[in-house]
TrEMBL record:
The chain crosses the membrane at residues 74-98, 104-121. The keyword Cytoplasm does not apply. It comes from the Bacteria. It comes from Erwinia billingiae (strain Eb661). InterPro entries: RseC (IPR026268), SigmaE_reg_RseC_MucC (IPR007359). This is Sigma-E factor regulatory protein. The keyword Membrane applies. Pfam families: RseC_MucC. Keywords: Membrane, Transmembrane, Transmembrane helix.
Length: 154
């Protein structure tokens, strides 16, 4: 199970809105100038994900919770997102090449197959996203920010 800590933004009627920070190792790596991941990190979302998770117990804003998601669901999602467009690209490009016997047809088929595979992957992921095995679960809940009070005698 993959684990990640998140902060509760709000809780309303059994649904918690969570804020999770993105962690990258780009700041500690010495190969930043020649790294593609560093460039993609600069282009993408800056530092946070906001998500909603079902929670039966009431949560306070600012409270930290540990989320978990099964490796199987994460790996199958990655496989779906990367392989479906690639398989569509090869199959439709080969089909168009066999039917029309031109390179332009193969390129057109590759574009159609890649885009079609992406659209198919998006539809399947929407369907799979409703499954309980693809949803993050709350593993542990930390104390609310105002629950612990330290007093000193002076």
């Amino acid at each position: 199970m993959m684990r990640e800590w998140a902060t509760v933004v709000s809780w309303n009627n059994g649904i918690a809105t969570l804020h999770s920070e993105i962690k990258t190792s780009c700041s500690s790596c010495s190969a930043r100038k020649g790294c593609g991941s560093h460039m993609l990190d600069k282009l993408g979302p800056k530092n946070a994900h906001v998500m909603k998770v079902a929670s039966a117990e009431p949560l306070a804003a600012g409270q930290r919770i540990e989320l978990g998601i099964a490796e199987k669901s994460l790996l199958s999602s990655a496989l779906l997102v990367y392989m479906t467009p690639l398989v569509g690209l090869f199959i439709v490009a080969g089909l168009f090449q066999a039917l029309f016997h031109t390179d332009i047809a193969a390129v057109s088929g590759a574009l159609l197959g890649g885009v079609g595979g992406f659209i198919l992957a998006k539809g399947i992921s929407t369907y799979l996203g409703k499954s309980a095995s693809f949803q993050p679960v709350i593993l542990s809940v930390a104390l609310p920010p105002d629950a612990l009070r330290v007093e000193t005698d002076r």
